[in-house]
Write a sequence for this structure.
């Protein structure tokens, strides 16, 4: 039988007294270390940016709950569109929904208040537009850059009324119809335009008989890559088989298994640092007429 050295016997009481504290320190450090390792593993394939445009709102609650369950932050582009409830997306009846998304930490952009399609740039510097909703819904109009800027700002003003917070300085043109004049008008009044990656087109507005949900799911799982912006809607009137209830959950789960993580456009390299604030006070005076 071996005898303990006398020096060890002298320090043994001190070791015994400090052992609980050391154990606590290790227990505290271990989760933090594990969390960092899990985070690195989750983003091993890169970061994707989910974005949703308003629509019929038939899938709005489902989408919000799915994102909440996965602890994912996304970016929402808002227009005042008619919903399946018979109201409009930026009516006071939707204030609780938008407030809940603000509380969840999502980002928000403008999609023009009346979902205004930009048709073409005019020679006099104006923009030919066609609002889908509102008092001028369905009419062709000629707007100045300032009028277009005001239309972008209407979303910020209404959102601030509904939620008490301003939107981020992002915008997305309805239908993807972007012209040089609308791009310049948006930039001049403080917004950066956000499109989406080719692989990030969800296809949720395509006919479901020709583009079934399983096909759309497989295409996105195969083709999405680091940095891609994904675009879908909070509900589409025309699609027979809704996209979100079938695709969103397996899409997120599949991408997470592949090593992707998710963030809002506030963290996208192209838009990071685009400040949030009272954009409604800005003007489009820097926009120059076309030569």
């Amino acid at each position: 039988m071996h005898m303990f050295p006398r020096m060890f016997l002298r320090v043994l009481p001190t070791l015994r007294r400090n052992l609980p504290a050391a154990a606590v320190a290790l227990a505290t450090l271990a989760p933090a270390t594990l969390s960092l390792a899990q985070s690195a593993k989750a983003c091993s394939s890169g970061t994707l940016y989910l974005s949703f445009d308003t629509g019929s709102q038939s899938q709005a609650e489902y989408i919000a709950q799915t994102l909440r369950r996965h602890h994912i932050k996304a970016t929402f582009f808002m227009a005042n569109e008619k919903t399946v409830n018979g109201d409009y997306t930026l009516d006071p009846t939707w204030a609780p929904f938008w407030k809940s998304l603000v509380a969840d930490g999502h980002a928000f952009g403008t999609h023009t208040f009346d979902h205004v399609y930009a048709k073409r740039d005019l020679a006099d510097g104006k923009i030919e537009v066609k609002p889908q909703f509102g008092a001028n819904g369905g009419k062709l109009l000629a707007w100045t850059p300032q009028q277009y800027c005001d239309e972008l700002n209407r979303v910020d003003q209404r959102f601030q009324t509904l939620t008490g917070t301003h939107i981020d300085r992002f915008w997305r043109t309805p239908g993807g119809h972007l012209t040089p004049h609308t791009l310049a008008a948006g930039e001049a009044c403080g917004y950066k335009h956000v499109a989406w990656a080719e692989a990030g087109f969800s296809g949720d507005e395509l006919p479901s008989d020709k583009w079934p949900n399983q096909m759309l799911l497989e295409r996105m799982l195969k083709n999405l890559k680091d940095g891609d912006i994904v675009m879908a809607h909070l509900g589409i009137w025309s699609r027979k088989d809704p996209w979100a209830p079938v695709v969103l959950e397996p899409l997120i789960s599949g991408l997470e298994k592949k090593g992707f993580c998710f963030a809002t456009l506030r963290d996208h390299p192209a838009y990071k640092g685009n400040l949030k604030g009272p954009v409604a006070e800005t003007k489009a005076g820097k926009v120059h007429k076309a030569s």
Notes: The helical segments are 6-42, 60-69, 95-104, 145-163, 180-188, 213-223, 244-257.
